[in-house]
Amino acid sequence: MNLKLHRWMNTLYILPIFLFLGVFIYYSLFDTFMTSLYKWNGFSEDKTFIGLSNYAQLLADPIFYQAIRNTLVYMVLTIGVQMVLGLLIALLLKTNVMLKTLYKIIFFLPVVLSHSVVSYVFRHIYDANDGSLNRALEAAGLDALALSWLADPDIALYAIIVINIWAWTGFSFVMYYAALTLIDKELYEAAKIDGAGPFRTVVGITFPLLRSTHFSLIILGVIGSLKQFDYVFLTTGGGPGRSTELLSTYIYKKAILEYNAGYSSAMAVILLVIALLLTAVQLRAYRSS
């Protein structure tokens, strides 16, 4: 009797989280998929079942492919640069430098700043007429490099990528710094006795032992890139000419601005599938390595 009661008590402990997941996650996913099968404006009672027509239309939509390309470029550059810079900063701060705590605060501070504040500040920095970036370039005699950073379709996406790198490199730094503290110092002492220099030590010891941190940052970076919305929406709105349009911003425009809930739901389903596939590939690569 006590064993049965114990099992029921355990079930009651985990029941709230299952109810939460069921209502807010799994039901929402199911409802999104069902909505993608209809032609619906998102608020009226009139819904027309059209099957997979939204998906067929989606596969013929050039803007959708543009958004995928932009998202992939955004993902690769932000993840790669943040990881490299974060690791370099962590390695530097593991040495005997003065004011180490101050540097940690400075590097991590952008992570906790509001996205809206960061976007607002960088809009003024990138301003073509009166921005501080162009003013600094002109003061340095580099007038040719003073560009319309957010209005030029060739560079606008990369300008937003810089915003993300500035804001989130501190997170990569903290992850790497925490992982570095777990590495046995005797490994470095043995390498030093064997005559290994700093570069060889990092390549042969530090980098391989940070494997789990690498994969964690990649997974988190992929998820963050796929759902990135704030920086793009608050700086360029997806323009100019769709040059900074991401999947998340395109879904928003279709659902909220164009009242096409069915089409946006189809894109949301595709976005979920892409996220699951990329995560599965990364987990498989992690296990095989």
Record keyword descriptors for this entry.
single chain, 289 residues, mainly alpha, two-stranded antiparallel ribbon, 1% strand
User: What percentage of amino acids are in beta strands?
Assistant: under 5%
Tell me the total number of β-strands: 2
Largest sheet: 2 strands, antiparallel
Overall structural class, as computed from helix and strand content, comes to mainly alpha
User: Whole-number radius of gyration?
Assistant: 24 Å
Number of domains: 1
Task: Kindly state the percentage of residues in helix.
Answer: over 70%
Q: Look up the CATH topology.
A: MetI-like fold
- Shape by Cα distribution: globular
User: Which H/E pattern describes the elements?
Assistant: HEEHHHHHHHHHHHH
Membrane topology: Multi-pass membrane protein
Subcellular location: Cell membrane
Transmembrane segments: 12-30, 72-93, 105-126, 155-180, 201-223, 261-281
Organism: Paenibacillus piri
Could you give a short description of this structure?
Belongs to the binding-protein-dependent transport system permease family. Helix content is 73%, strand content 1%. The protein has 289 residues and is mainly α.
Question: Could you explain the architecture of this structure?
Answer:
Belongs to the binding-protein-dependent transport system permease family. It is found in: Cell membrane. InterPro entries: ABC_transporter_permease, MetI-like, MetI-like_sf. The chain crosses the membrane at residues 12-30, 72-93, 105-126, 155-180, 201-223, 261-281. This is Sugar ABC transporter permease. The chain is mainly alpha-helical and 289 residues long. The protein has one domain: MetI-like (MetI-like fold). The chain is built from 13 helices and 2 strands. The chain has helices at residues 2-35, 53-59, 62-93, 100-112, 115-125, 132-139, 156-180, 185-193, 198-209, 211-226, 230-235, 247-257, 261-288; strands at 38-39, 48-49. Strands 1-2 form a two-stranded antiparallel ribbon. Strand 1 and strand 2 form a beta hairpin. Helix 4 (100-112) crosses helix 7. It is globular, with a radius of gyration of 24 Å. The mean pLDDT is 91.
